[in-house]
Amino acid sequence: MDKQESSILFLGKEDDWHVNKALEFCQLNFTDVVASVGKWGDPLPESIHSWQGDYIISYLSRWIVPKHLLERACVAAINFHPAPPEYPGIGCNNFALYEEAKEYGVTCHHMAPSVDTGKIIAVKRFPLLASDTVSTLLSRTYDYQQILFYEILNHIFKGEKIPTSEEQWTRKPFSRKEFNKLSKIELDMPKEEISKRVRATNFGIWKPTLEIQGFTFELKN
């Protein structure tokens, strides 16, 4: 089948299998794809600021896309957020685990200058299990997000209107400050509270910490 005549700016996370699959789909099915991937702390490449085209697609991107660039997308600028509308912002899966949510999900939404505030396009939900950790929840989240990506991009490929959803963001986005606070353990916390924070923030090299008289102690598994 011929490629769809659309220009896409694809923004994603560096060295990520799901991002690579999403980018490959765009390159195989659309005529003009400009891609930039990066990690936390990388500046948005200067060359990207002059881009103009049909769609911006942000997929696990580490960048906040500035307003002037969003306005250069003639059709739509959309983001795939690895959380449901109840969890905008940063550390979404961590807060869901901490709150012992029974359900989680992924969201596709139009991008706005303020992070995770744009009109929602579609949501896909799935159970959050009592056995879930940060690692298992993230793994399943990225799988569901990939499915949602294919569904939305298929609409674009076929020249159809982007879907709309009646769902709304339910709170302001979680901040880095709130996330950092979640990973702190205090001596006077009850055991149940400590267990919840350990479950919610223990992931790879990232560990919950305890500070005592200027010394920081890190969880050891």
UniProtKB/TrEMBL annotation:
InterPro entries, sorted: Formyl_transf_N, Formyl_transf_N_sf
Keyword list, A-Z: Purine biosynthesis, Transferase
UniProt protein name: phosphoribosylglycinamide formyltransferase 1
An annotated GO BP: 'de novo' IMP biosynthetic process
Enzyme Commission numbers on file: 2.1.2.2
Superkingdom of source: Bacteria
Pathway annotation: Purine metabolism; IMP biosynthesis via de novo pathway; N(2)-formyl-N(1)-(5-phospho-D-ribosyl)glycinamide from N(1)-(5-phospho-D-ribosyl)glycinamide (10-formyl THF route): step 1/1
SUPFAM superfamilies, per database record: Formyltransferase
